[in-house]
Specification:
The chain has 216 residues and is of the alpha+beta class. It folds into 2 domains: 110 residues, RlpA-like domain (Barwin-like endoglucanases, Beta Barrel), CATH 2.40.40; 72 residues, Alpha-Beta Plaits (2-Layer Sandwich), CATH 3.30.70. It has 3 helices and 12 strands, in the order E-E-E-E-E-E-E-H-E-E-H-E-E-H-E. It has a 6-stranded mixed β-barrel. Strands 10-11-9-12 form a 4-stranded antiparallel beta sheet, with helices on one face. The chain has a two-stranded antiparallel ribbon with strand order 1-2. The radius of gyration is 17 Å and the shape is globular. The two termini are 29 Å apart. The model has no long low-confidence stretch (mean pLDDT 87).
C-alpha cells in the first residue's frame, strides 16, 4: 500500500555517476509519466541492500529507477497485455542503455514478461500528500556505510575482504536477525567525520556497489 514515506538522503545523492555517466535525481515524483522498456532483476541480488538500505526481495513489489526520488510509488502497466502493478521505487538502475525501469522478478511475473525478460511499459507516479523531504539533512552522526546483508556468511566476508583489498577501508561483518531470518551485514567504517564518510559513499557507489544506508 502506498504511504507518504519521507525522502531521506540515503539513495538520493544527486548528481551521481555510474559507468562514467552522470544522473540527476528529480526534485519530486509528482506527475511523472513515461513510456519505455522495463527489465527485471532477481536471484543474484536477493538479500542485498537496495539504494536506500532496504533489503531486496525478488518477490517484493519494488523497482529501480535512475532519477525518481527514493522512496516513491509508481504504477507500471505492460502495454502489450494491459496488466498493471503498483511498486515501491527503492533502488537505482537500470544502467543499461535503452531501459527505463528495473522491476523485481515477482513484479515481472505479475506483468507477464518474466520469461521474455523485457516489455514496453508505461510508468506513472502515484502522488501522495504529506511526504516529508529530508534530503537536506547532513551526514553528521553517521560513522558507517552498509554494503548489504547476506544469508550466507561466506558471501558477506568475501565482499568485506574485496573492499578492504581494493580501497583499504576497514570493514565489519555482523549478524542481524530480521523477521526470524539471520543475515550477515557488511559495514564499511568507522569513519572519523562526515566528509570521509561521504567521500567513501561516492567512491563505492560509482564503482557499482550497492551502498545506500548510513549507520550511526
Amino acid at each position: 500500500m502506498p504511504r507518504p514515506d519521507p525522502l531521506l538522503p540515503q539513495g538520493n545523492s544527486s548528481p551521481y555517476r555510474v559507468n562514467n555517466v552522470t544522473y540527476t535525481v528529480l526534485a519530486s515524483p509528482a506527475q511523472y509519466r513515461e513510456r519505455g522498456v522495463a527489465s527485471w532483476y532477481g536471484m543474484k541480488f536477493d538479500g542485498r541492500a537496495t539504494a536506500n538500505g532496504e533489503i531486496f526481495d525478488v518477490y517484493g513489489a519494488t523497482a529501480a529507477h535512475r532519477s525518481l526520488p527514493i522512496p516513491c510509488y509508481v504504477r507500471v502497466t505492460n502495454l502489450q497485455n494491459q496488466r498493471a502493478v503498483v511498486l515501491r521505487v527503492n533502488d537505482r538502475g537500470p544502467f543499461h542503455p535503452g531501459r527505463l525501469i528495473d522491476l523485481s522478478y515477482g513484479a515481472a511475473v505479475q506483468l507477464g514478461f518474466a520469461q521474455q525478460g523485457t516489455a514496453e511499459v508505461l510508468v506513472e507516479s502515484i502522488d501522495l500528500a504529506g511526504v516529508d523531504d529530508r534530503r537536506g539533512r547532513t551526514a553528521e552522526g553517521y560513522r558507517f556505510l552498509q554494503l548489504g546483508a547476506y544469508a550466507l556468511p561466506d558471501m558477506a566476508r568475501a565482499l568485506a575482504l574485496e573492499v578492504e583489498a581494493r580501497w583499504g577501508y576497514p570493514t565489519q561483518v555482523s549478524p542481524v536477525d530480521t523477521g526470524g531470518q539471520r543475515l550477515y551485514r557488511v559495514r564499511v567504517g568507522p569513519f572519523s567525520d562526515a566528509a570521509a564518510l561521504e567521500a567513501a559513499f561516492v567512491q563505492l557507489s560509482n564503482s557499482g556497489y550497492g551502498v545506500a544506508q548510513r549507520l550511526p
